[in-house]
Amino acid sequence: MFDLTSILEFSRAHCVAICGGLVPLNLLLTLQTMILTGLQRSQRQVRLATVLAYIPAGVMVLHVWTWLMIGVVMAPTFILLGLACICVGINAWASLSPQTMAGFLRGGWFWVMRRIHHSGKGNDSVVVP
Questions:
Q1: What's the whole-model pTM score?
Q2: With contact defined as beta carbons under 8 Å apart, do 87 and 30 qualify?
Q3: The pLDDT of residue 128 is above 80
Q4: Whether the predicted pLDDT of 111 surpasses 70
Q5: Burial grade of 15 (CB within 10 A; 0-12, 13-18, 19 or more)
Q6: Distances (CA, A) of 64 to 17, 38, 83, 124
Q7: Which of 2, 25, 45, 65 could form an S-S bond across to 41 if both were Cys, CB 3.0 to 4.6 Å?
Q8: d(CA 89, CA 105)
Q9: Residue 84 pLDDT exceeds 80
Q10: b (16+ CB within 10 A) / e for 73-105
């Protein structure tokens, strides 16, 4: 028989291990989705990456929900819930509008590269009239 209580207790008992695995997994899979979108890979690859990234985000929401069910309202619960929601939002953006995300990522990349390129030139150059 299916016993939900034991699953909820397992989630709370192994919180550090679960969060220690889910947080980097959320970040890495969402980063993978962003990279594939920025490189303008096929829509099939981007959608597969988003589906894979939704899994740890959903598990994170369910894990945090187990703490909220018993009344644990602390900063880590909201931080983890916020991280999962941000990852879901980024993946939804990549899935629903990959062109706008790719343009945003490329614009940010070129802005950073311009800043890096210009920061090395102005410090040790001498202007002679």
A1: 0.82
A2: yes
A3: no
A4: yes
A5: middle
A6: 13, 31, 11, 52
A7: 45
A8: 15
A9: yes
A10: eeeebeebbebbeebbebbebbbeebeebbeeb
